[in-house]
Specification:
- This protein is mostly helical and 228 residues long.
- Helix content is 37%, strand content 9%.
- It has a two-stranded antiparallel sheet.
- Strand 1 and strand 2 form a beta hairpin.
- Helix 7 crosses helix 8.
- The protein starts with 28 loop residues before the first helix and ends in a 5-residue tail after the last strand.
- InterPro entries: RVT-Znf.
Length: 228
């Protein structure tokens, strides 16, 4: 059987070093560090596919990525880094302020990772868009928490549930519209000033306000048919 093969000792068949932990056989510092840390299988976790394929704005996916990597800067994390004098929640001042505590989730059977994984999949009782509503809700709770803690403001809608559902419907409507094949092609429109007829003048105005209600100011320009 060995005699059936012609062995070549030429340079074209030289042995090569191959890194078996990579798809292309090449060594990388990133993979080596992951192996040393014992988390070289992290990219195979199915939760990353759920996050990056979830329906919603990119900022929401990035927010989920931070949570899955445990990178959201709660008061507990600030305390561990010496940035806060207490790890307690700034709202209730009782429990440690972890992200799960902020979301008011008291489940003792699911770890934060598993809790996120379960809710990023469509739920039969809530419909196919449940992951989008779930993510949108987490995002706004986290955003309002930061407004209260860091901006010393209580600018939160009087009916948060209605507000969140409204933003959720806007996201779904936008995604459904953008995926429709019946959208008209974009056309470029050049905006320019059009002169009025002879012996006429045109008044062009512009304005701005700081808040609504708030300070406002407007200006106007009168121009004839020759632009004077």
């Amino acid at each position: 059987m060995i005699k059936a093969f012609s062995l070549s000792l030429g340079d074209e068949n030289e042995d090569q070093l191959v890194w078996d932990r990579s798809s292309n056989g090449e060594f990388s510092i990133k993979l080596a560090i992951n192996i040393i840390r014992g988390n070289d299988q992290v990219e195979k976790d199915p939760i990353w596919q759920l996050i990056w394929h979830s329906r919603g704005p990119q900022c929401l996916r990035f927010f989920l990525w931070l949570y899955a990597y445990d990178r959201l800067m709660t008061n507990l994390k600030q305390f561990k880094r010496g940035l806060s004098s207490s790890p307690c929640c700034k709202s209730c001042s009782e429990a440690e302020e972890s992200f799960i505590h902020l979301m008011k989730t008291s489940s003792r059977t699911l770890l934060p990772h598993d809790w996120l994984f379960c809710n990023l999949k469509p739920q039969a009782q809530y419909g196919a868009h449940w992951p989008t509503l779930f993510t949108n809700t987490l995002w706004w709770i986290w955003k309002w928490h930061n407004i209260v803690c860091f901006e010393n403001s209580d600018h939160i809608p009087s009916n948060p549930e209605t507000f969140i559902k409204g933003r959720y419907r806007e996201i779904i409507k936008t995604l459904d519209t953008s995926s429709s094949s019946e959208l008209p092609l974009r056309s470029e429109l050049h905006i320019k000033w059009l002169a009025p007829p002879v012996d006429w003048v045109k008044l062009n105005v512009d304005g701005a306000s700081r808040g609504n209600p708030g300070l406002a100011r407007g200006v106007g320009v009168l121009q004839g048919s020759l632009g004077n």
